[in-house]
Amino acid sequence: MSTTATLPDLASRAVGGSVVCANDELFAERENLIKPAEPVFQTYTFGHKGQVYDGWETRRRREPGTDFAIVRLGLPGIVRRLVVDTAHFKGNYPPEVSVQGCAVEGYPSPDELAAADWEELLPRSPVRGDVRNHFEVGGDRRYTHVRLCMHPDGGIARLRVHGEPVADPRWVPAEFDLAALEHGSQVVGCSDMFYSSPHNLLAPGLTRVMGEGWETARRRDDGNDWVSLRLAAPGTVRWAELDTSYFLGNAPGWASLSGCDARAADLDDPGNWTELLPRTRLQPDTRHHFRLPVRAEVSHVRLDIFPDGGMARLRLHGTAAPDARAELARRWFNALPESHARAVLAGAGQDDALLARRPLPPGTDLPPALVQ
């Protein structure tokens, strides 16, 4: 579960991503690039501009150049894997693509983004038509935007930007959802994800349909399904929300929560896990709220559902341990590209001396003005 293939899509519309601009979208709209659903195709569905495609498609170039689209990541973070999906584009896909990333403060306009410091994530690389083209990405910088370039033109159905969300500590309150993707939580284990990804549990907002949650296959044995996650920061969970919205005939009958602190104990030893919420009855299509009877400091939480079924969202509200909150801020600052780090320092009235000390080692506290 820790491979790049299972990391969340930082660009997806489902987590707040948007396509800021594109230089051309004559045949098919740029917004299709980040739709969560898989691309579809219906033969002989023509509009005024030609066959209707579920993707982004530009006109045929008659002069040298490159077509591009800029995506604002819904979850700023470290990019680990790119998927350029050319599904259904067979004679009109780009022969090559490249991807760059940048990090900026605030909410820049397309013109401001054009002047940003862009760093290469994927050099100009060949792609094939009607397939998912996968590319591993190195580096450890946190980006807020990516730019997808087609050389020279063509159509792309979807862009997936899989990676690790890195929260901005300036926007993380004292008590927050320790399980939220936007704060940096990550699924590290799962018994079954036959129908949908367990990362859906941690996504922002409420679900609108059953497919936006996590659902397992029907069990035919005496076991139960489960998912485990690394919290955004080790801390104390005070109350939990177990949401079965839209799961009517397939909600779990019961659920429980347990936790372990990997800083002091071996996660693989069942004896090190503490019961946070005992096995508790659930109702279909319901947002359940539970105050946890046991409040232990944990870094990982496991949700067990009995025996199987679907869950829309899991929220674990609490407070981070003091040293863990400092570590959250340190990781964020270390991951900032240099131009963004300079802007953050300037905005907090700090000089650039801290830049020369990066990467800041564990235990280093950032100036309060930088994270408040």
TrEMBL record:
EC number(s) reported in the record: 3.5.3.4
Record pathway: Nitrogen metabolism; (S)-allantoin degradation; (S)-ureidoglycolate from allantoate (aminidohydrolase route): step 1/1
InterPro entries in the record: Allantoicase, Allantoicase_dom, Galactose-bd-like_sf
Gene Ontology molecular-function annotations: allantoicase activity
EC class of the enzyme, as a word: hydrolase
Similarity comment: Belongs to the allantoicase family.
Name recorded for this polypeptide: Probable allantoicase
Lineage: Bacteria, Bacillati, Actinomycetota, Actinomycetes, Pseudonocardiales
Gene: alc
